[in-house]
Specification:
The protein has 806 residues and is mostly beta strands. It contains seven helices and 53 strands. It has a 22-stranded antiparallel β-barrel. The protein has a five-stranded mixed sheet with strand order 10-17-18-13-14, with no helix packed on it. Strands 1, 4, 7 and 8 form a four-stranded mixed sheet that branches. A hairpin with an 8-residue loop joins strand 41 and strand 42. The N terminus is likely disordered.
Length: 806
């Protein structure tokens, strides 16, 4: 490896070899494994060897002219030097280095008219660019947010990117535009259930997805028992899902990263938009704080299913409550030419009660403060302070005997990221993150006159951190690399009592720890690499490997996130989950990038997977770890994706062939068994057709193999009662699932600043009775027999939504 490092640097002049020698001496003095020091050394040498280019720099921000929103992923190319280009980051900033001379810069982004600017470069130059929405693309369907043949050229693989604007006509249940349900229509991403926003990625569990909203962790991304996501599309700027080739800046989950960015708000003029639907409505306000310098956006939603419950003739139903609400707020302000401040927050809550007999409410709250700073035209910095809070409360009974159960997890984080545009062929990213976790496992709340006593489980504390270094490097016209290294750590701390359990779950010892005292420390290196080899202008092959550590674990008996989920830290008993994934893919574009095709195959190994003993108690159990068992898993599959990106007819076809297996001591005789999310076949077809300027038709059809499930293999009689007999874990399957949804969007004639549209959709148009649950009972006519009973949740569901903007 050392020889490889020197080979890379040998093509450069000796002017900086003296510096490299001192780096070697310093690294040899550092503690730690020799392989770790060599890996860091390679990355540091990369940073040094590219810092000597003698060029001038053109840099700036790319924005949308109509509202001042910064544009992520916009491309800047140099007409005189076709091989040189730059891409704007998540804050719209770009930087490109060129020798002295006169150049023509072409700036473009999908959905916007291209802009050409001539630059006479004899010094470092600041050039901000504003793009206008293209009148041409407004008359055709656009279902991708990628530029040109980026699908082929980029070293990134396993990434899905889109904006809410590109998916606004896709029909979903209840007619609510939903980014997560759209992601479920792409290969490698599987729905957690009928109409549910929970999702599985390449064999991982629902808790193995890192979900971020403006960098803040969202622990439960579901509303209304999972049928809506917490992401209001009117407030969302862009969305990226990483299935593989995960950049080193992300850490903390074993399977995937869903990175959601909120809109900045209109810094040109006041605007109002919203929508009225059968189940929920939404309203968004945005305006400048100071024109061209700052803006804000305020967006809110509320469902009103509880209003329809009042119309019921059933007294219990009439006295029930079921609704959610959420609010997004974001503001930004340019303090100076080099500094920009962002403040954003989210607050959402669900409330469900059944005739005052029982109920629960749950919600997320996040807040993010970020400061962008330009140290130079090549060095961009972002400093973030982040707060996240997820909590729920479960209520039973009323009056003197009423009981409440409460639980929560809270995070405070500091995050520092740097982007160093070393040269046109190398962009270096490095930084750190530190998060302080507070776990509130449970609290029983009872009235003074109750027969129960109030009690509180002791809180748990942990410090999680990570440092990373990553380089996005273009080796040649054919070869590009994105490689990095992340070191993550986790310190489970007091104040508290730590118990130790044997393999059977019996407590063997306990010890009290002081506040801040380390109970258990974990840490590890997470290498990440993606490589692209360009076969020709239309096709390429890619390879990626990443290792991810996950230190937080979700304890739930549900198939997806539920309001009563319990998050617990890695401890002296629970080891961190580790996932190693290798992926290989072939990418090809056709017809001048109108069609994109990709084939990806992957293999994933999972360590320290958590499962439960039979009869394990998860709620209000101070020794919940005694009911846990541990094992390993594997997931492998192939994904096919064909997408038409523009024209009157757009859409995609996706197919996934995969298996997901688990092996846990004490379950299924120690043999591998299918995981809950194991589905062998998964097909999705999405079509969007622009009939004319006013009418767009859309449809999607999905099919997947039924979920793995544990059903009784037989029964036996005990005292006259039939008792089910279970054999292998997840040895049976639900019936195969399929349905078709159709939609129509009617755009009204635009009047000055006012525009509106009607969206009509039908979910499950051919009335397929898909199984939501399957239960077993004794046959009424022959009690010696057991029969299966299927429950279907949704049949045909029509929806109407009116959208407006001015």
């Amino acid at each position: 490896m050392l020889q490889f490092c020197f080979t890379i640097t040998s093509t450069f002049s000796f002017t900086y070899l003296y510096q490299l020698q001192h780096i070697h001496i310093y690294m040899n003095k550092l503690p730690g494994p020799h392989s770790y020091k060599l890996a860091i050394l390679c990355l540091l040498q990369m940073a040094v060897m590219f810092s000597y280019a003698q060029n001038f720099v053109v840099s700036g921000t790319i924005e949308e002219r109509q509202n001042g929103e910064t544009l992520t992923g916009a491309t800047v190319t140099v007409k005189e030097m076709p091989g040189i280009s730059a891409v704007s980051n998540e804050y719209g900033f770009y930087s490109i280095s060129l020798p002295k001379g006169k150049y023509t810069l072409l700036v473009n982004s999908i959905g916007f008219s291209s802009t050409t600017t001539v630059v006479d470069l004899n010094k470092d130059t600041r050039l901000n660019v504003k793009l206008v929405i293209s009148s041409v693309t407004m008359n055709e369907v656009v279902v991708t947010a990628k530029d040109g043949n980026k699908n082929v050229r980029s070293a990134s693989m396993g990434a899905v990117k889109f904006t809410p604007r590109s998916i606004e006509t896709i029909p979903v249940i209840f007619g609510e535009k939903d980014i997560i349900k759209t992601l479920q229509l792409t290969p490698g991403v599987k729905s957690a259930g009928e109409g549910n926003t929970g999702f599985y990625v390449r064999g991982g569990g629902a808790d193995q997805n890192l979900v971020l909203l403006d960098e803040a962790n969202v622990y439960n991304a579901s509303h209304l028992l999972g049928f809506f996501s917490v992401f209001n599309s009117d407030a969302v700027k862009d969305v990226t899902l990483y299935k593989s080739g995960i950049p080193a800046e992300y850490g903390g989950r074993a399977s995937s990263v869903l990175d959601v960015k909120m809109r900045d708000g209109n810094n040109q003029q006041f605007g109002v938009s919203g929508g009225l639907g059968l189940i929920s409505s939404r309203l968004t306000l945005e305006a400048p704080i100071v024109k061209d310098k700052g803006s804000f956006i305020l967006s809110g939603r509320r469902s009103y299913a509880d209003v329809f419950l009042k119309l019921s003739n059933n007294e219990n139903t009439k006295n029930s409550t079921l609704y959610f609400y959420d609010m997004n707020l974001k503001a930004n302000y340019k303090i100076s030419k080099k500094d920009k401040l962002y403040l954003s927050g989210y607050f959402g809550r669900d409330n469900f009660t059944f005739s005052k007999q029982f109920g629960f409410d749950w919600g997320n709250g996040t807040a993010t403060a970020r400061l962008n700073h330009l140290y130079s035209n090549k060095l961009f910095s972002n400093t973030s302070f982040i707060y996240s809070n997820y909590n729920y409360r479960f209520n039973i009974g009323e009056g003197a005997e009423a009981l409440g159960i409460r639980s929560a997890i809270r995070d405070l984080s500091l995050k520092q990221d740097f982007t160093h545009y070393v040269s046109n062929s190398s962009t270096l990213k490095y930084g750190m993150q530190l998060t302080y976790h507070t776990f509130l496992p449970g609290e029983l709340i009872a009235s003074d006159s109750s027969s129960f006593n109030s009690s509180t489980l002791k809180s748990k504390y942990a410090l999680e951190g990570g440092i990373y270094l990553q380089n996005d490097q273009k080796i040649s016209e054919k070869i590009s690399l994105m490689y990095g290294l992340r070191y993550s750590m986790f310190n489970y701390m007091g104040k508290g009592t730590a118990y130790t359990y044997d393999a059977e779950g019996n407590k063997t010892s306990e010890r009290d720890y002081k506040s801040g005292e380390s109970i258990q420390y974990y840490g590890g290196l997470e290498p990440r690499i993606s490589a692209r080899y360009q076969l020709n202008n239309e096709s390429s092959v890619k390879l990626s490997f990443n290792r991810n550590y996950q230190y937080l674990h979700l304890l739930t008996n549900a198939s997806t996130s539920s309001p009563t989920d319990l998050w617990v830290p890695s401890s002296n008993n629970i080891k961190p989950q580790i996932a190693n994934q290798l992926a290989v893919g072939y990418f090809r574009n056709f017809r001048n990038n109108m069609f994109e095709f990709s084939f990806e195959t992957y293999y994933k190994r999972l360590q320290n997977q958590v499962d439960y003993r039979n009869g394990a108690e998860l709620i209000l159990n101070n020794e919940v770890e005694s009911g846990l068992v541990y094992g390993k898993g594997k997931a492998y599959g192939a994904e096919f994706y064909l997408k038409k990106t523009r024209g009157d007819l757009g859409g995609w076809i996706g197919y996934t062939l995969s298996r997901t297996m688990r092996q846990v001591v004490g379950i299924n005789n120690g043999n591998y068994y299918p995981a809950r999310q194991d589905r062998i076949h998964d097909i999705s077809v999405v079509a969007i057709y622009r009939l004319n300027k006013k009418v767009t038709l859309s449809a999607n059809w999905v099919f997947n193999t039924g979920d793995a499930a544990t059903f009784p293999s037989g029964s036996y009689e005990v005292n006259g009662l039939l008792v089910p007999y279970y054999t292998e874990r997840n040895g049976y399957r639900f019936p195969n699932y399929h349905r078709m949804d159709v939609g129509l969007t009617w755009y009204r004639k635009k009047k000055k600043r006012f525009e509106s549209s009607w969206n009509f959709s039908i979910y499950n148009v051919y009335n397929r009775e898909n199984a939501y649950t399957i239960t077993f009972r004794q046959n009424e006519d022959d009690p010696t027999k057991t029969e299966a009973v299927q429950t279907t949740l949704f049949k045909i569901v029509p929806s109407i939504t009116y959208n407006f903007k001015f």
